[in-house]
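hiii, so i know i said id send this last week but things got crazy w the move. better late than never?? heres the sequnce for the chain we talked about at the cafe, plus the structure i predicted for it. fair warning i was half asleep when i ran it
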Amino acid sequence: MVGGSNPPGRAYFPENRYPYWVAEKLQLSPEIEAYVRWHAGVAPAQSNDPVYKRILKNKWTWLSIVIIASSIASLLIMANTVMPNVTTEDGFFIPGLNANAVSTSAWRALPTLIFWIVCFVLVDRFKPQRLWMWFLAVLWGGSVATCASMFLNTWLGEQMAVIDDMAGLLAAREAVFVAPFVEEGFKACIIFLIVIVDRNRFTSRVSGAVIGGLAAAGFAFTENILYYARVIVFVSYNAGAGEAQERLDYIVYLRGVLTAFGHPLFTIMTGIGIGFAVTARSKSVRVLAPVAGYLMAALLHMFFNFQASILPEEQLFPLVLMIAWPVVIMVAVRLVVSSIRQGRVISARLDDYASVGWLPPEYSSAFSRLRSRAWTVIMSIWHGSVIKTWKLQARVTELATLGEAISRGTIDRGALLREYDLINEIKELDTNGGLYSGKGLRPYWPWNASLHAYDRHRNAHSLEHIATTQVPLKYSAVDPSWSPPT
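okay and structure toks below
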């Protein structure tokens, strides 16, 4: 750091001393560089193509089209299945769901969905996934996974049925032996799709848990709508079924509050397993961790459905409160601890980059604390650019997680090309409106803006003067003609 007269919120960048691979990068052909980046799973080089070509070449464009088209088709298929009235072969009439019941149920199921979205988004803070990725996860769980599970559960349940007069045998077998494996498999598909398309987005176990939890929240949202709507329709067709509002409130409390943890908790296990696999160096762990996570999710789901199927409600409530919710709290604490540990990892890796002179030493403390990052973004409204500050935080975090992957040995030398891009982009953002720290900065009234602009210009000019001026030596230079005695 030079002199200590830097503009507030900006650090002095040392002259970057890149290693030998910079020369190699300059000698790579575009085709070879693109292959090396793809093989390492990092972002491609900046393209000069027009915007429409970059959109068409973007892998997320086509994945989004596939997911959205599949979701629309799934919702239409489900609506066509559950909305019409059905009369069975023995003459039993089953009323279909109506638009009013579905609309009412959606509003009653929405608070549970919002609660889980907020929880998972708050956990995923250091390197949050893209907003679009969160949306795709919720959309997949609420449409494709729900529709596919509904039909496959029914078909497999029918194959497992036996001739027995015991009422509810088919439903119980389907809930215990079929639904857990089918539903957890379809919910986990979105996690695998995102890892295949862009595994660099998964930098920790928290990343997998968040995507899995959001997909499960979407699945539970659609499932709750179907359950609530069936209660509304059943009560409306059966005068002796009791008060409609009372029964609806009860099922909302049961599924939307008391056992709302179910689907998110189960699918989190698969997400954590995939997170282990992506960040592990061992090939055995990369294969076994997702399988173990999926089996844990299915077994927990199976145990929950088994208890719900055989226990009366007065015994189920104490079981949920004494066993299930403590497990949920333990998992939540573990995710928070993992998020805190991610901050320590970021600090350690930024210290590494600062020790070799590629980043300012102030970055380590500025970007490893969530409160400091949030305050910096707020202060950038007055003292910089909000967009560039947000990008600066994202790029520095990506660089730190990339450095962690390199140190673990889970990514090959193609990551060095992305490292080169990130360091240059970070320097550009820091010196052109992006704040690295909001420490010591305060908001000011609009009529004082000109004064603060003058202060920033004066500080910047002072920094430029210090950086370009030779500091006089305190001692005389050594005589170049001197040499040791021969």
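btw The first strand starts at residue 86 and ends at 87. thought thatd interest u
miss u guys!!
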